[in-house]
Amino acid sequence: MQTNDSITIDTDKEIRIKYKNKMLTVSIHDAERQLASLVEQAASGTAFIISKAGRPMVKVIPFTSDTETPKRLGFMVGEITVPEDFDQMASEEIVHFFSESKG
Asked: How far is the CA of 1 from the CAs of 18, 35, 101, in angstroms?
């Protein structure tokens, strides 16, 4: 079932909305005119769809940050030491391993 309703977003401006599958749908023309208000609405938790010529184009959802803290570079500074020659360690064994002929 599809109903056409009108809601007031600003005190002096109205946009037409449609509810399809219980999701607010706004035409791209109305979205252009009321972008700031629609972004505020999405940020407050109400997702909506922007359509063009009646066809859904994008779904706008509120941004949520990840609960995990991103890993930081340098978090173990001072806790480990790296030998000066770490890039040359076991080089002879590695060369020997790769240069062995298979027969």
From this structure: 10, 27, 74
pLDDT of residue 16: 55
CATH number (3.40.50, 3.40.600, 1.10.3470, 3.40.1620) of 3-60 reads 3.40.1620
- Residues 98 and 95: their CA atoms lie apart, in Å, by 5
Q: What's the order of all strands across the beta sheet hosting 14-20?
A: 3-8, 14-20, 23-27, 48-52, 55-60
Angle, alpha carbons 57-61-63 (nearest 5°): 135
With a cut of 70, list the residues of the chain below it in pLDDT.
1-21, 66-70, 101-103
Amino acid (1-letter code) at residue 53:
A
Distance (Å, rounded) from C-alpha 27 to C-alpha 49?
8
Predicted model pTM: 0.47
